[in-house]
Amino acid sequence: MSVVEACAPPRYLNDAYLPLLENQSRYLVLRGGGGSGKSVFAAQKLAMRLTGETNHRLLVVRKVKDTLRQSVYEQLLDVLRSWEMMDDITYTTSPLSIKCATTNSEILFAGVDDPEKLKSITRITSIWIEEATELELEDFTQLDIRLRGKANYYKQFIITFNPVDEGHWLKKRFFDTPDPRATTLLTTFQDNYFLPEEDQQTLFSLAAVNPNYHRIYVLNEWGRLETGNEFYTNFQRSKFVRPTPYLPGLPIFQSWDANAHPYCAMLCAQLEHLPQGRLRVRVFREYTIPAPNSGVRPTARMFLRDWQAHWSSSDVFYTGDASMQNRKPGEGNQTLKKDIESELLPCSNGGSDRWLKQNPNVLRRRDWVNALFGGYYPDLELWLDEECLETITDLELTQLGLDGKLKERKLDKQKGLSYEVRGHCSDSFDYLLATLFPTYLQAFLRRGLPA
Known about the structure:
Blueprint: H1 3-6, E1 27-32, H2 38-52, E2 57-62, H3 69-82, E3 89-93, E4 96-100, E5 105-111, H4 115-120, E6 126-129, H5 137-146, E7 156-161, H6 169-176, E8 182-187, H7 197-209, H8 211-218, H9 237-240, E9 252-256, E10 263-273, E11 279-290, H10 296-311, E12 316-320, H11 336-343, H12 362-373, E13 380-384, H13 389-397, E14 409-412, E15 417-420, H14 424-436, H15 438-447
Parallel strand pairs: 1-7, 1-8, 2-5, 2-6, 6-7, 9-12, 11-13
Antiparallel strand pairs: 3-4, 4-5, 9-10, 10-11, 14-15
Helix pairs in contact: 2-3, 7-8, 10-11, 13-14
Pfam families: Terminase_3 (PF04466)
Protein name: PBSX family phage terminase large subunit
Organism: Hymenobacter defluvii
């Protein structure tokens, strides 16, 4: 029996969501603004499956277990009550559960912050993740692994969230690189027929209160987590990010950062000469090979293959973190820079080495790069290709620390190591600018004013 046939008539549902009632994609991703009705629909679909399909163990998840009762649990009961479907329903608050006697199906609830409770729940047949931006990618991956095995019906994630953070893993996972097993739907409050007029007016007022909130909750566009402590205060995606293709014959400048985890960062840029003596920095490619295949040698080899296939009309120059010229422990005189040079021999020449002798002071170079972003050098333009996602995210989200960039660290439990989450691609970006414009940089460091 169809869940639609078994349950609520269409008049209880918003038109935007009706086609998804029978959707069987592994991942049903509902990105919505405020008041868009996405969470209500998720509750409606689970209620339909609870009462229309047999032997389900449906799991509802949020990051913190204590938030479940007053949000998704009550929302599911509200749906069942409004549809007058409570006769066959039993529910408990300790533990949280909702059961249907007719179908022998049940809805269970768990917080990611209670891993022992999650481990104890077996035979899961589908999962709803509410406020999915609260979860880390590792949290989602563990849930994805849990949803396996045979079932009477299709297994599905329903993933609901507001697009609060342009750097979030959800954007990469389901939007930057679409998953063929995923269905995505974008909705706003205008798709919610049942939203009261007063709530609509509240959303409209956000435009005057906070433009970022307006983007997220009214327009359903990706927002930016603003803290007031951003390292690159003058970077604006709308101003500096655009399609930036490679220009044949123009030299390529590489810029390297000394990290292997979570990836080895290397940027490729060109310096375009414009009329009236103006210059344009064109960052057209980033290399961020993740572990376990990360490292300067694999990255250099990948670049070399690309150069031989597409860019061989361009000379190659390289620069990077001055510390990469230090000897590697236990390897004699070998350095990371020498590793790179040995791999790049086929595309190098006698003048390719433009490596920094010393890294500029982090806080002073921050001031200088923000001056560039702020337009203090009218003869310079900065372009970043829209596919340079890690670099863009770094420039938007890297935070200021006491003596430089805030070194937020993350533990990789599988590898048993911790690494700095952000700052790698933006470091490469800083080194690139310092190499291309040393005169501007030195004048700024001396006087604190643009040259």
